[in-house]
From TrEMBL:
<feature type="transmembrane region" description="Helical">
    <location>
        <begin position="297"/>
        <end position="321"/>
    </location>
</feature>
<feature type="transmembrane region" description="Helical">
    <location>
        <begin position="56"/>
        <end position="73"/>
    </location>
</feature>
<dbReference type="Pfam" id="PF00999">
    <property type="entry name" value="Na_H_Exchanger"/>
</dbReference>
<feature type="transmembrane region" description="Helical">
    <location>
        <begin position="145"/>
        <end position="169"/>
    </location>
</feature>
<dbReference type="GO" id="GO:0015297">
    <property type="term" value="F:antiporter activity"/>
</dbReference>
<keyword id="KW-0630">Potassium</keyword>
<dbReference type="InterPro" id="IPR006153">
    <property type="entry name" value="Cation/H_exchanger_TM"/>
</dbReference>
<feature type="transmembrane region" description="Helical">
    <location>
        <begin position="358"/>
        <end position="378"/>
    </location>
</feature>
<keyword id="KW-0813">Transport</keyword>
<dbReference type="InterPro" id="IPR003148">
    <property type="entry name" value="RCK_N"/>
</dbReference>
<feature type="transmembrane region" description="Helical">
    <location>
        <begin position="113"/>
        <end position="133"/>
    </location>
</feature>
<dbReference type="InterPro" id="IPR038770">
    <property type="entry name" value="Na+/solute_symporter_sf"/>
</dbReference>
<feature type="domain" description="RCK N-terminal">
    <location>
        <begin position="406"/>
        <end position="523"/>
    </location>
</feature>
<protein>
    <submittedName>
        <fullName>Glutathione-regulated potassium-efflux system protein kefb (Kefb)</fullName>
    </submittedName>
</protein>
<dbReference type="GO" id="GO:0012505">
    <property type="term" value="C:endomembrane system"/>
</dbReference>
<dbReference type="GO" id="GO:0006813">
    <property type="term" value="P:potassium ion transport"/>
</dbReference>
<dbReference type="InterPro" id="IPR036291">
    <property type="entry name" value="NAD(P)-bd_dom_sf"/>
</dbReference>
Amino acid sequence: MNDHIIINVIILLGTAVFIVAILKRFRLSPVLGYLIAGAAIGDHGLKIVTYDQTKLLGELGVVFLLFAIGLELSFERLKAMRRYVFGLGSLQVLTTAIVIAGAMVLIDGNSSAAIITGGGLALSSTALVMQVIEENRSQSTQIGRISLAILLLQDLAVVPLLVIVPLLAGNNQASLAAALGIAFLKAVTALLTIFIVGRVLLRPVFLFISSESNNASELPIAMTLLIVLSAAWATETFGLSLALGAFVAGVLVAETEFRLQAEESIYPFKSLFLGLFFMTVGMNIDALEMYEKISHILTLSIALIGIKTLIITAFCILFGFNKGVAFYSGLLLSQGGEFGFILFSLGKDSGILEESTADILLLVVTFTMALTPLLAALGRKIAEKVDKGLSKTPTQMIELGARDLTKHIIIAGLGNTGQMVARVLEAEGVSYVILDLDDDRVKEELSNGLPVFKGDVSQADTLKALGTERAFAIILTMNNQVTIKKSLKTISDNYQDIPVVVKLKNLKNAREFYDLGATTIIPESYETGLQIGGTVLKHIGISEQEINRIKVQFRLGNYIIAKKEDALSEAEDND
C-alpha cells in the first residue's frame, strides 16, 4: 500500500472513472459505481488504498454537498419548511429510535446499547439521498422537500447522540441530563456565531474580493473554500457535524448577490470529493464477511428498511402528503447513514457495544447504503403506480402536490418560456409549481423530475388547489391570448393582490391585459431582439458590461416591465 495522498487519489479516480463509465452505459446510478470501485480497491478488496487514508477526503465531499444545498435555500424558505423540519423530522428520528431501541431491549436487555443502536439507525445518509435527488432533478418536488427537511433534523440530532455515548459508558444519569443541556447551548452558540459573523462580514468581503478579482480569478474560489472550511471547523469545534456548519454557511451566502459565483466556485470540488466519499463507503464493504453473516445482515437490513419505510410513510401521510410520495420518501430514507460508522465505532471503543454487535451494525449500514439507488428507483416506480391508482381528480392531485408550498411561484404553460423560467427559479432555490393542459408534455416533464400538474389556471378551484393565497406571484407563459385573458379575469376576481407576469408577443394590446389584472407584461419580440443584438455586439468586441448597459437602456426606452403606465404609453405610441 502506498501512503502518498496523490497516489491514493489517482488510484481512486482511475478506478471510479472506469467502473462508473461501465455502469452509465447500462443506465445505472454512478453512486453504485463509486461503491463498487471502493469495495474493489479498499481494505477488504485488493488493499491498494485503505479507508483511513481516504476518510478525510470523503468527509470533505459531504461538507461541500451540504454547502451546495445551503446555497439553494434562503432563510425565508427554511422558515417556510420549519413545520416539516421540526415536526416531521423530529417525529421520524424519535419514533424510529424508540422502536429500534425497544426491540433491542426486548432481545438482550442492554438499554445503553439499545439507545446507541436506535439513535444511529434512525439517521439516513444525507450524501446518498441528496445525490439521488439531484440525479433525478427532484430538488423542487415534494420528494426533495420532504427529504431535505428530515435530513436537516437528522444532522441536528447528531449532537446529542455524540454526547450520549461517553456518558452511557459511565452510567451517570445526572451527568447525562447536564451534558445534553450543555451540548444544546454549544449548538446554539456555534450556529449563532456563524450566523452573526456571516451576516456582518460576508457581503463586504465578497464585494472586496469581487473588485479585486478581475485579474485574479482564483480569489473567489479561495474565498468560497475559506468560508466552507471555516464554518465546518467551527461547528465541529462545538461538537456539531462538519456538514451542518457548511450548510449554514451556504444559507448565509445564498442571502447575498454572490450566490451564483460561490456555486460556480464550489461545484468541481463538490462533485470530486462526493465521489470519493461514496468510494470510502464502499471500502467498508467486506464481501467475505457479508457472505459469512449474510443471513443476519439480510434479516437486519430488511427489518431496518421496513421499519423506517413504514414510519416515514405513516408520518408523511399524517402531514398531508399523498400515499405515493409518502412511500417513495420512506424507501429513499430507509438506509443507515454515514454517521453510523462514527457512532457504532465509538460505541464499540467505549465498551457499550460488543465488538460482534458493532461489526454487524456497520455491515448493515454499509449494505443498506449500497442499496439506496435501487430503493430509490423502486420507490419512484411504486409512487407512479400508486398515484395512477388514486381516484383523484386533477384538481385534487394539484392540491396534494402543492399543499406544503408557501411563497412559491405558479407557472402556467410548459413551453420553452415556462421551462426556462423554471430553470431560473430552481437555480435560485425558489419553490415553484407548473401547470399545463397537454397530457403528454406533463407526463414527460414529470418523469424528468419537474413539479408539473395537468390543470387550467383560468379555473378558480385550480387556483385554490395551487395555494395561490400563499404564493408570491403567477407567471402566464401560454401563447393563446384568449386563455390568458380568461386566466387574468379569474385571478383578478379571486386574488387581486397577487402579482401576475404575462408573456406577450408585443405590447400592441397591452392596455387590455393590464385592465384585466396583469401587473407586468414581457414583450417576447423585444427580448428576442435584445438578446440577438447583444450577441452580435459581443462578437464585434463590445464588453459584457457595456452590452448589459445598452440592454437596460433599451428596456427603459421601449418598455418598462415594472411600471404599467410607461408600458401603456409605449403601446399607444405603437398604434
